[in-house]
Hints:
By secondary structure, the chain is mainly α. Helices cover about 75% and strands about 0% of the residues. It is globular and about 55 Å long.
Amino acid sequence: MKLFLGLLIIAIGAFCQSSCYVPIRRIKDWSWESYWLVQGIFAWLIFPLLGALLAVPEEHHLFELFAAADSFHLWMTILFGVLWGVGGLTFGLSMRYLGVALGQSLALGTCAALGTIMGPVLLNVFFPETNPLQSLTYSVIWGVVITLIGIGTIGIAGSLKTKETNAEQQSVAEFNFPKGIAIALLAGFMSGCFNVGLTFGADIHFAQTSVLYASLPATLLVTLGGFVTNAIYCLIQNKKNATFSDYKNVSVWGNNILFCLLAGALWYSQFFGLSIGKGFLTESPVLMTFAFCILMALNVVFSNVWGILLKEWKGCSKKTIWVLILGIVILIVSCFLPQLI
């Protein structure tokens, strides 16, 4: 029952994340770089800070924790957050050169797989005496493989959709397979750095902290690193596109701040849910290791469910819809499979 509850909480977080673009559609008269920066303040600073405070016992404070933490682990956690921020920025380029179906499948598949595997591998490089590779069991590897198959199946459905509806004809006008593959793999690799950061920061918490909140301080450090990357890029774009005036448009501030706040809260819910959910998975080392991959798989599932509800698959043949459903089913099965093997 505890395992099911943990997976359910992670699923709720994934659903919230896949919904975070809904409030963004209600933002008015701001350029992409302006609203991305403002929602990032909520998603990568304010809400992660509030989450991390839940991990602080009475008569202690957060900076006390960071000051006492091992400096190598602390800075590696932030560094991989910076790298994760690069992944978010390059994610869109993969779809520009490959289309949404192929670009998203490659990037998310790489993120899910490498995000699960890289942490133990890199820890083994620095601290082989702790034998971190023991967490990459046969069951975990099989779970990653099945997840990749599911994401690939949805990618095939997306490709069929494109051929049938020509919905992405314009967006793939710059189709460049070699460049697109390289960028998609880079985006997936960098995005997977989020979980690597969490791995390096796994011990950054107070001894009295509940296991439910134990990874929230590390989450703050990772998102802080990602915020730095995104903020620099957005401010450069503000200057390049002369869009600093967006922040002076007071007539839309109330509306835009509200929807940036909602988008930020929904986005952060995935990693808040990941922390809480893993607190119920402690009896299963396999699911603890595989949890990030589960989160990415469910992000893909719910993103495509939203696509169905918003009629983005309208006009597709029954064959394409069944391929999409098959991919979704494979991803759902992949969440439970490692525990069954």
